[in-house]
Specification:
51% of the residues lie in helices and 11% in strands. The strands form three sheets. Strands 1-4-5 form a three-stranded mixed β-sheet. It has a two-stranded antiparallel ribbon with strand order 2-3. A hairpin with a 5-residue loop joins strand 2 and strand 3. The chain is mostly helical. It is built from ten helices and seven strands. The protein is globular, with a radius of gyration of 20 Å.
């Protein structure tokens, strides 16, 4: 993960201290997910190694939520693969396929020229998933003839094969676009809803807030669509991991 346009951030020292404090908090809170502590690498960039890689997009969402209060955006690239070195507390001492894939993904996310970026279409999306491509033909070899029907030929006569990676990244891109459209008022309502858990509790908490107003902001933000997408993306990532383990 890397801060967008960090060199032009006016309160850079404050932001860096905030991030360092949050990294410590995340290290303590997510010890069951982390293979090793989160490490700051290059300036305003940090590296996360998960023992449960299917939680990658959830962790990205968590950081996005934390940094939104300071209007900070991040590029996020996450990959799945093997580790070829030992496990160290400083991730900079580690290497392997997962690091290469994640670095490639980060570079793709940071390429803002969408005309030449073959992987990301929207300027609102700063997240990309990268791993060995896994097609449905590989997973269901006995259904090759049937699955061939879902492949399409583009206008430049290139056949697009349906893969887990393309579906995951398509869902991520659509989700990031929806998240980008959430207004500050809607965001405040979402944060309160996540904290209190129900419309009734929110009404009790705020004297001038009504269920109709809450519902309008929650539904207007596509909150439940985004939440459902998060679950579906994690399910696909989990399935990807299980299939790769069995291949």
């Amino acid at each position: 993960m890397d801060i967008v346009d960090s060199r032009n951030t006016s309160n850079r020292d404050y932001i860096q201290k905030e991030i360092l404090g949050y990294l410590e908090y995340m290290n303590n809170k997510n010890s069951d997910l982390l293979l090793t502590p989160i490490t700051m690498t290059l300036g305003d960039e940090w590296q996360i190694v998960l023992s449960k890689p299917y939680k990658g997009y959830e962790i990205i969402n968590t950081f996005q939520t934390f940094l939104r209060k300071d209007d900070i955006l991040v590029y996020s690239g996450f990959g799945i693969g093997t580790i070829s070195t030992g496990i160290y507390k400083d991730t900079r001492l580690m290497d392997g396929e997962c690091f290469i894939k994640a670095r490639e993904a980060l570079n793709i996310a940071k390429n803002k020229n969408r005309f030449y970026n073959k992987h990301i279409s929207s300027k609102k999306n700063n997240v990309y998933f990268n791993a060995d491509d896994l097609s449905f033909n590989q997973v269901f070899p006995n259904k090759t003839a049937y699955l061939g029907e879902v492949a399409i030929t583009t206008i430049d006569n290139q056949k697009q094969i349906l893969t887990f990676n393309k579906i995951i990244n398509s869902m991520i891109e659509n989700n990031e676009i929806l998240k980008h459209k959430v207004t500050e008022k809607q965001w405040e309502t979402i944060q309160l809803y996540d904290k209190l858990g129900s419309y009734n509790n929110m009404v009790k908490h705020g004297e001038s807030i009504s269920k109709a107003d809450i519902s309008q902001k929650i539904n207007g933000s596509n909150y439940f669509v985004i939440k459902n997408n998060n679950l579906n993306i994690e399910s696909l990532l989990r399935l990807y991991c299980k299939i790769k383990e069995g291949i």
